[in-house]
Design a protein that fits this description.
The chain has about 180 residues and is α+β, with helices and mostly antiparallel strands. It is built from eight helices and four strands.
Length: about 180
């Protein structure tokens, strides 16, 4: 557990411009992951990029505790050396137990703009598949992703009877009301 870490930013504390600036284009991702893993000095790496977040999930080499990789991560994602203080201001970091908790909450949609949204689990699964294809996911991240996505499925089954709205449903409702003449 102590070998797992996460570093990234989300809509909760950064602007969409910051998220966009640090996003790796999908077409480049598979080739960039091994380079990024090497530059960060980690044994396993998964990149999650959505419209609301950019996060790097990583596992360290045997026996090493996960540390704060905000500085090196920002440098690699932005392509420039960040000014003093920018990395801790812009990025968040989790290690060990808090990283595991973050990933589980994320997979279940509990760290999303719309609590309980389901798109994030699919995005996380796609990120995991990309990391596996690139050869940057290994036994620790594979186990973490399997557990996180399994938990997300269980939460979705429990939630199935509640009629939870997606972000698209929430956005469409006022438009449909307006078109129907509802004040």
């Amino acid at each position: 557990m102590h070998q797992i870490g996460v570093v990234g930013l989300s809509y909760r504390h950064a602007g969409i411009d910051d998220v966009a600036r640090l996003t790796i284009p999908k077409a480049d991702l598979e080739a960039r992951l091994p380079e990024l893993r090497s530059a960060l000095g980690v044994s396993e790496l998964l990149y999650l990029g959505t419209c609301n977040r950019v996060e790097l999930l990583f596992a360290t080499h045997d026996g090493e505790a996960a540390g704060d990789l905000r500085g090196p991560a920002l440098e690699q994602l932005s392509g420039r050396r960040p000014p003093q203080g920018e990395a801790p201001r812009l990025l968040r970091a989790w290690a060990g137990e808090s990283a595991l908790e973050h990933v589980l909450l994320l997979a279940c949609g509990l760290d999303s703009a719309q609590a309980g949204e389901r798109e994030i689990a699919a995005q996380l699964r796609a990120a995991w598949e990309t990391a596996r294809t690139a050869g940057t996911s290994g036994p620790l991240l594979d186990r973490l992703m399997g557990e996180a996505l399994g938990m997300a499925n269980r939460v979705q089954r429990l939630q199935a009877g509640t009629g939870a709205s997606s972000l698209a449903d929430l956005a469409a409702a006022p438009v449909l009301d307006h078109l129907a003449g509802v004040p």
